[in-house]
Amino acid sequence: MNPENNVIENIVRLQDIEKTSVRKLVILKCFEIGFLSTNDLESKSKKFRWVDSVIEKKTLASLLAKASFEDKEHTNSVWDNDKEVTGLLNEKIELAEEILDCLSNSIESSIENYPFW
Fold first, then answer.
1. pLDDT (average), residues 93-116
2. What is the mean pLDDT of residues 30-42?
3. Cα–Cα distance measured from residue 90 to residue 75, given in angstroms and rounded to the nearest whole number
C-alpha cells in the first residue's frame, strides 16, 4: 500500500470523525436497535424530542463537568508572585469550579425520566 494513500485515508477518516456529532451517533444507534423509527424522526414525535432533549442536556452537563481552570489560560496574572493575590485567585477558581459542578448536576437532574412505559 502506498504510504501517501494511507495518510490521505487517515485525514479523510479524521474529517469524518470531526463531522460526526454525538447527537448523530446516539440517534443512529437508537434507529439501529429499534428504539426510534423513521416515523419518529419524520414527525419529530414526542419520543424523538425526548431523546433529543436528553442528548442536549447530557452533552451540556458533561462539558460543564469537564471544565477546569488547570490550563491557567483565564488566570494568568502579573500578580503570580504575590501569594495573597494568588490565594484569592485560587479561592475564586475553586468557587467557579464548584458552580460549574452545580450547573452540571442541575442540568443532569433536570433530564426527564423515560415517559413511555
1. 91
2. 94
3. 9
